[in-house]
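[job 4417] fold queue: 2 targets
>>> target A
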Amino acid sequence: MSIPVPRDDLIDFLDDLDEDGRDDGRGGQLVWTVLIVDDDDEVHHATMFALQNASVLDRPLRLLHARSAGEARSILEAQGPEIAVVLLDVVMETPEAGLDLVAVIRRELHLTELRIILRTGQPGYAPELSVVRDYDINDYKTKAELTHVRLVTALTAAIRSFEQIRTISASRRGLDMIVKSASELFGRRALASFAEGVLTQIAALLKLEPEGLICVRNSVSFVRDIDSSLTIAGAAGRFRAHVDRPLSDLAERDIITTISRCVESRQSLYDDHATVLYLSGEAGRAAIVYLATESPLDPVDRRLLEVFAVNIGVGFENVGLFERLNFFAYFDPLTRLPNRVRFIEEVDQFLNSPVVASDYGVALLDIAGFSEVNNALGQRTGDALLMAVARRLKGAFPEGVRLARLVGDSFVLFGPLTILQPQALLKVFDAPFHARGHGVPLRIRAGFAPVISNAEGMLPRTSDLLRDAAVALGQAKLDPAVRYCAYSAQMAGQARKRVAMLNELRAAIDFQRGLTVHYQPQVDAVSHELRGVEALIRWRNERGEMVSPQDFIPLAEYTGLIGEIGAWVFRQACNQLVRWRQAGEDSLIVAVNVSALQFRQEGFVDMIRSTLAASGAPADRIELEITESVAMEEVDKVAAQLRALKSLGIRIALDDFGCGFSSLSSLSRLPIDRVKVDRCFVAELDPDNAGSGIVHTILKLAEGSGMSVVAEGVETIEQADLLQQLGCREMQGFLYGRPMAADEFDIWLGHFHEEPMV
């Protein structure tokens, strides 16, 4: 972490120092004393096991043990000056016992030299930044992190720090300024502020004008896509204008060459006109201090600077700790964009400023089907795609537009509505995104929420804007054809109703209350035979009201409940088919609708197979209906899925044929047995268009492809007659029977056998 200081040089430079070790009972050998404070005996045993025979800086360890903060205090009062490191549990008798003991160590016992490493078994718990700073805490680790190697590494760093601080404290000449300057530097959290302070203190220490710079490498190594080149983090004198710029931009090439030699050798350099200090850190971070000097440093100044460099290294690590904590608190590590917390803070600050924000708004977007892309291409490619999306969004809008990643594939923007136009946002996603050799087209849905003041003239909070944008986004997701939606007050009421309906639907599924399957007959109008039935789900809510499938099915699809509902309907239909066959109805075919989401779910074919086996229903008497839109999504993939179903003996029907934009060449590749003419075409059927309309076309296409046809929504005898004239025999609709519960259908079936036709 810092420059090693030769022991002999320090002894020559400093006055006689007190020894900082103790006899361990084995002949006067010097040891490092470590106090372990934890209320868990297993932690003590595990630590002793991990540290057995361990040696740090050529000395063995002497372990002291305390099971409570009170016991630890007694040990510290008796042996505090001899203890180098305290391994301290955060949560013991009370949730704050460990941190309270830290206050006792520093403020009451005034043990400023011993090093403190906090440990916790609760990964989500972390001390406040002020606690880490004010109480000079060396490190913070979860207990799971402290394996043998990491524990020894952490102790080595802490003991080295302890030794260095004791060396400085024991010095009788020239070190007062070092201690004071170190104290000031430890209070500087930001890297730029810390770097500037280092240069100022070094210059004062050497009685020179501040003239130099500090370069950092991997100062944000906890962020992905690290740039390992050197950046000027702080500067003084003529170099001040170069802060936050790459070192390679510096015009003075000799300085770059000198710093490069320092980096390559990983050692400090002392040239005639410059001093370069090399400070290494954790995770590959490094800092290089370049100071312009008029002449070579004399031995005293050089040794003094080496001692000071120790403190710089410790301070550098502290700055790194603060930067990491700050980054993860306010930024998304993957995309480096602000996170939700930072976004809300920035936008709230803007909304509370005198700037007129009435023409501003929030755009909330997420990527449609991104989880499927992630699963198909792998998480690394998915992460690369999210980074590509972040870069493109950032480049598409001016700096005045705030951009953040909320969670997963959700991004949010805040800015003038004249800039955040829906078409401008959608245009960002026109071209495919490239990641790891893949060119992936991505589609988004977006919800917009404008900044609107209330009756008192108060502007909304950012959290309210995000809520409204989420409501608008949810509204857009209800219709696959809609890509964006703007918030309105009416949506909030609709959203509340959807949430209430969703909760009731969830309860209906879990407790099997109110959900039933109704069956609508499919009749051969020529032979007067019952060909089959279509299974249709119905739901009566807790208030006894029938809820339209047009209301709850889209909600179930949006929330993913459709998978459970679809599987339940299929089980009920199979069991009912078996009961009808036992009653002598051997020729019935039961048709069951399959939603797009259910069809795409992993394990769908296995669910069909296991349900058939459990119920004993014959597969050749089951027909699965898929919509035309599902059939056309990925024809090859859909065809493979359908062939797997056909291999079980299942029949396949294409529902809503003619409502989409499918091509005949694509349809010909699918193993379809039957086509269903949508009710909207049957409703428009009349004698004038019967011979040339779309129903006639569908029938001819089906006949040429060897598929049978059933017409839906047949409600009048005139429609039935026209369909027969066109060659359509199988019909379904109110003319023959409404959807009925199983017991009602049994009654209808008895009447049908007695008097088949209406």
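>>> target B
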Amino acid sequence: MILSPTTSKISFKRALRKEEVRDYTETLNNAKAIAGQTGKSILIVHDACLPQRPELNTGIGNLAANDSLKFFETMKTYLGINTVEILPQGPIKPKKGLYCAYSSSALPLGNHVISPELLMSKEFENLITNNELAIVVKSNSIPDKESRVNYPNVMDNDSPFDKLLKKAFERFKKLDENNHLKQEFAGYISENNDWMEPLAKQEKNTDPTFFKFKQFLADKHLKIAKEKLNNLGIKLCVDCEIGFSPQEVSAFPGAFKKNTYIGVPSWELPALDYDTILNPESASYNLLKKKVQLNAKRCDTIRFDVSWAYITPKLTPIGGQSEKKEMGDSLIKLIESWVQEVKGKDFDLKHLLHEFEAGPDDFRAMINDRELIPPLKGRTKVYSSTYMSNDWGTNDAFINYRGFSPDEYVLGVGNHDPQPLRQIANGLPDKVIENGVQTEKYYKPQQIEPLSRILKIPREVLDNPIEFAKAKFAEAMMAKNNMVFYMDVFGRGDRFDMQDFNNPMAYSHKIPADYEKAYIKAVQEGYGFNPMDSLEKIFKAKGLDITQPALYKKILKYRDILIEENSSKIKNRFTGIKMYAVLVTLAFAAVCTAFYIKSKKKVTPKNEPAAQNPKPPQQTPAVFSNFHITN
């Protein structure tokens, strides 16, 4: 891999040096295997928030961009990830001013999936020029464009980027009919027109073929991004949202329960017709199948958003009362069979991740708090430790109290949805809406006892916010399958999902172009994810520091390297300090000598000989309280 030469650029802390990367990687992998973290290591990121260099900053990151792939390569080195999970990929229309990935269309892909860099390549017949892209970049003129996503600049119909795609479309139409892109496009339409044609008709004032052209590019670019990630040893997981967009309701009206929402009523997500959804001839069955299989084709694996709604859907008529419909595992089994139709019968269904985490009023996963309900058994469940207590949210609780197998759950400190780890660590309240009323909840107090017991860390130590955050990362990393959200990796204190339609930063926190520097700084501050620090705590808690002393020593070495000052800067600083100390000492000595000579002249009589061997004045040593001078 290629790491930026940060040792000459970062003055506060340092990154891994090129010659350290291989040994760091071997140490990380070996330590994780011995500690039991042998399954999925997932980095969750909203691809719209991926880093962009200033000259390519259109406002929205792109999964296939070179900047993105270098970012993932760097994160693979530091964190040991083997899977990248991205949020839903559909076109996003603003809802009350908020561009939320979970209210996007479920079948098509958004403009942001199309890579400008690829469109400027020979592979895509140079469909756009660098100067044309520069116009889109210039139009991204929001003041905080380095740190915030600019959705309107790319995602909206007739946005600057959409206009650029129209130029690409005009050039595409002029290509020879035997051109490879034209041939591929014809095949793509033949395979996907059943869902594209109804949706194309919903695009007002837009050429239906232009809509299909964009889908062709987006699907092809996503495939290229997946292949490049796979070449790095990283699988691509996509989040399959539970809902559909208003455009999809209009395009496929027979598939939906009229004027009915699915899930939490405040989400306002249209509900499929669950009365007919198990019938292979029904529109609802076939629309859900299409959504699942499109995601299966596009990525290596899938996380199913609000998967509990496939087991016990909560249906709410507009203006009416919510009702639950018991489906058992019949629909989940159908979903699994649809994935295997695409991936093959040998595809391991444990790679499908299910979100069964929900409030007790919406869904209950346990019988008597000690046994999973049958549809959840054996399936891979996704949980965060946000709501940790003695009997929930820890590996110990899941395995020893709830009876989970290590294979059937993924655990992380958080994801896109809950309060960020840094806020919890600092004891800040989580402001949530319950029954239409805003309340405050505090999650830290009940988490200190289980963390202290599991990791064998004194409770008073965990009162410290930084030590608490480090302990949370370590406990989650004890899971066989682990996940981490990019906002927590970078120690961010802002909530990603603001639960607030009026906040422009919701779903918009961009990863900086100098991401490696930002990551090292976060680790130095103590809130960023340092996996070697987590492994040190796990090894000590399990006694592996005694049984694996050589490996433990390496863990300590690399844990400290990520918070070590740049050695060349240290040397230069200490050299400067020593020179400063010498100069100050010499100056002080000179002053004392002058004072001594002057005082002797003043007190000795002119004609009286001076005393033999006079006692020199006592000198006060120079003290540098803020410096520790070493050779």
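[job 4417] complete. Note on B: The two ends are 35 Å apart (CA to CA).
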